[in-house]
Amino acid sequence: MTEHAPPAPKQPPADEADVIVVGAGPSGATTAFYLAQSGLDVLVLEKSRFPREKVCGDGLTPRAVKTLVNMGISVGEQDGWVRNKGLRVIGAGKRLELPWPELASYPGYGLVRTRLDLDETLARRAQQAGARLFEGVTVTGPVLDERTGRITGVVAKAADGGEDRTYRARVVVAADGNSSRLSVAMGLRKRDDRPLGVAVRTYYTSPRHDDDYLESWLDLWDGDRLLPGYGWIFGMGDGTSNVGLGLLNTSAAFGHTDYHALLRKWLEGMPAEWGFTEENRTQPIRGAALPMGFNRTPHYHQGLLLVGDAGGMVNPFNGEGIAYAMETGEILARTIVQALARSRRAETERVLAGYPHALSQAYGGYYALGRTFVKLIGKPTLMRFATKHSMGRPALMRFALKLLANLTDPRGDASDRLVNGLSRLAPNPE
Ligand SMILES: Cc1cc2nc3c(=O)[nH]c(=O)nc-3n(C[C@H](O)[C@H](O)[C@H](O)COP(=O)(O)OP(=O)(O)OC[C@H]3O[C@@H](n4cnc5c(N)ncnc54)[C@H](O)[C@@H]3O)c2cc1C
């Protein structure tokens, strides 16, 4: 009897995969994690190398904690995560501490972690699940089927030079963040009728670095106009605080605000002992956009699927983007797994085309409400009225926390049912 060597495990060719994910931020890493876990060959192309910076407030609500736990990431304090108990709101001369609600659906605590750490943790988790991550590879454009115009891959260049390479896959995911060049190259631009925020942030050494509440300031003034947005102070637990502010494009001040000056002016009013002064600043002040309320659609077009900031998934009520980047990553991965398991191309297509509907089911009504909310608070008189009349009413503010942070149980108490009911009733165009 002749002995045969066992067949070598089949290695996919380096430039082909079932799915290409462009970008390894929270949305790309989460999509890749769930795809790889289901046994698909996933190639993630990321232009930077981890660990890398990302301009962010570094704040994670209980929604984000849940997504981390779902991925099997250990979120204990011994692993470098800083816990918080809730949100402290300061406005109209008042100060309210609102603990995160007690719910079955979400944990009762939030976290803080630098994006330097968080994004690397997520990317490595995707790798552990089997995703192939190529760092230092910038995608420069789509590869299209000449006859149908469908995306069949991408062209990319490596940071260390060399020739452009082509990568091919059955579907391509745009997880390349707010500017999403890949979506633009496929004709998908930002929608002007949807909200957009701009925010700046920096870090200061401060005795407040171990604050166990996330802090939010509603009083951002431009002369006598109260601006729609808020300032934040999040203790990083490492001797520094992440301090920043964000504004919405629904106010007249949006296009012509000097964000750096506004930040400095806001901080000048803080107690000196908190240390938010130029001498204690440890990083440059940096800013970026927050694409909100589905501001780029459709989320599926010609073989390209949009996830996270690329698809404008930031919550318009509070500017939170990480939880939604990760949640939409999971929804997308589950759609792709089902689609690629179908034997006929038309069937695959039908499943992929269901992705925008799945997103709309999950967030459409809530984001439609959010879009109305940002229009209303864009009017300075309304913003001032709302701040003045809600800050003195803790019960109303507890309800506002549930609404603004999207934290309810499906069959929870009366306030949960009100938030859920409003989201269901809101007109919900895809
Ligand atoms: C100032 C500020 C503060 C914020 N604070 C918070 C907060 O406290 N909490 C919160 O939940 N959210 C916050 N957000 C929002 C949050 O940062 C985003 O919603 C989140 O990062 C979205 O994740 P993403 O993976 O979709 O995109 P990103 O995190 O932007 O990741 C995109 C990735 O794609 C890569 N990439 C881009 N182009 C290419 C290319 N051509 N080829 C290969 N790779 C590419 C990038 O390098 C990057 O790694 C804040 C945003 C800003 C601007």
How would you describe what is shown here?
The chain has helices at 26-37, 62-70, 115-129, 181-185, 259-268, 322-340, 345-353, 355-377, 380-391, 394-405, 414-425; strands spanning 16-22, 42-46, 59-60, 82-84, 86-91, 94-99, 110-112, 132-135, 137-144, 151-158, 165-174, 196-205, 214-217, 221-222, 225-226, 229-235, 240-248, 286-291, 300-301, 304-306. The chain is of the alpha+beta class and 430 residues long. Strands 1, 2, 8, 9, 10, 11, 19 and 20 form an eight-stranded mixed β-sheet that branches. The chain has a seven-stranded mixed β-sheet with strand order 6-5-13-16-17-12-18, with helices on both faces. Helix 1 (26-37) links the parallel strand 1 (16-22) and strand 2. It is globular. The mean pLDDT is 94. The protein binds flavin-adenine dinucleotide. The site of flavin-adenine dinucleotide has 37 residues, from helix 1, strand 2, strand 9, strand 12 and strand 18.
